[in-house]
Design a protein that fits this description.
The protein has 342 residues and is mainly α. The chain has 13 helices and no strands.
Length: 342
């Protein structure tokens, strides 16, 4: 059953965003543990593997929500570009400049006007900003798919099928069979499959049974990621994150499961609306906050290792999440700065 109507406020969209940004922070805090195989106690490494493996759907969920919101109601091209493109450009340029300023201040990098321009243009300022560049690319191609949605929705499923073949399936075959397909279709690679999948799943209605089955698939996919990463790493004697791959089948299956589960239950609470409004700001600044927390600038030094992963990981994640949300909330209250975090 399908539904293309969209109310003014969608609690499940905010709930998905909140979970996605929480997962992003978990990944960026815990990955340090995962790449210390053989250098730290096994149980410490396993803590990192478990929480990182369970959070791998983070970026996928963000792309899916963006796809749903941008494709559910096609609009004239002029109106679409006027509303979407300036917003992303403001966020990209503002936060690239802010990150560069902090990198210079902390002595990590030096920039001239030319190298700063090149860094912004090439997307090499800070690792996590790659998502914004990908989203900008999606926004540019979205009007084409909005027209396809209006004309023939089956074409979206066809394109998604191509993506599944040329991304998750092709990557799996190349990794374990050493076979690389001669036919290459760049238009059906990258992360665009999640963007389309968000729309296709978002317009469908699911039963309670289906939603719990979907959640079960997320649990199974997560267990597979965790156990397979452990097995591959132990076998290789060094960290092997093959199944952490965003476009891999386990992450794809897990993302579908969580998306359906959250959409069905449509969690609604004032805190969902509050934190939902801060997710963009949290994403853009969380790496800065992680660094400040690690240096002890905003309180006791906190990392995945300090005092130990059992305490350090959850405490660091919660502090970074809440502090980022609070700063974003403050910035949202200042009209001149509002567009830098929303």
């Amino acid at each position: 059953m399908q539904s293309t109507s969209r109310p003014t406020y969608l609690p499940w969209v905010d709930a998905t965003r909140i979970l996605a940004i929480f997962f992003v922070i978990v990944v960026h805090v815990s990955y340090q543990l995962v790449f210390k195989w053989g250098e730290i106690p096994f149980d410490w490494w396993m803590v990192g593997n478990i929480v990182d493996g369970a959070s791998r759907t983070a970026v996928s969920l963000f792309f899916m929500i963006s796809g749903y919101l941008n494709l559910i109601h096609p609009m004239p091209w002029g109106e679409y570009f006027k509303r979407r493109i300036p917003r992303v450009l403001i966020l990209l340029v503002t936060w690239s400049l802010l990150h560069m300023t902090l990198l210079v201040y902390t002595g990590q990098r030096q920039y001239t006007f030319v190298t700063a321009f090149e860094a912004i243009l090439s997307g090499t300022v800070y690792d996590h900003l790659w998502f914004m560049y990908s989203l900008f690319g999606f926004y540019l191609i979205t009007p084409v798919f909005q027209k396809i949605v209006e004309l023939e929705q089956k074409l979206i499923w066809y394109f998604l099928g191509l993506w599944v073949f040329f991304e998750p399936f092709a990557a799996l075959i190349e990794r374990f069979a050493g076979l690389k397909f001669g036919v290459f279709l760049p238009q059906a690679t990258g992360y665009f499959g999640f963007y389309l999948l968000g729309y296709l799943l978002g317009i469908r209605e699911f039963t309670k049974k289906q939603s719990w089955l979907a959640f079960g698939t997320y649990i199974l996919a997560t267990l597979f990621i965790i156990l397979s990463t452990w097995a591959l790493t132990a076998s290789a004697g060094k960290t092997d994150t093959t199944f952490y791959y965003i476009n891999g089948f386990p992450v794809l299956i897990g993302a579908i499961g969580l998306f359906i589960f959250i959409k069905y239950f449509n969690f609604n609470h004032p805190l969902i609306r509050f934190f939902g409004a801060t997710t963009t700001g949290i994403f853009l600044m969380h790496y800065i906050i992680i660094d400040l927390v690690k240096r002890g600038i905003v309180g006791p030094k906190l990392t995945a290792f300090n005092p130990n992963p059992y305490i350090g990981v959850p405490l660091t994640v919660i502090v970074v999440f809440l502090l980022s949300a609070f700063i974003t909330w403050v910035l949202l209250k200042i009209p001149i700065l509002r567009r830098t975090v929303s």
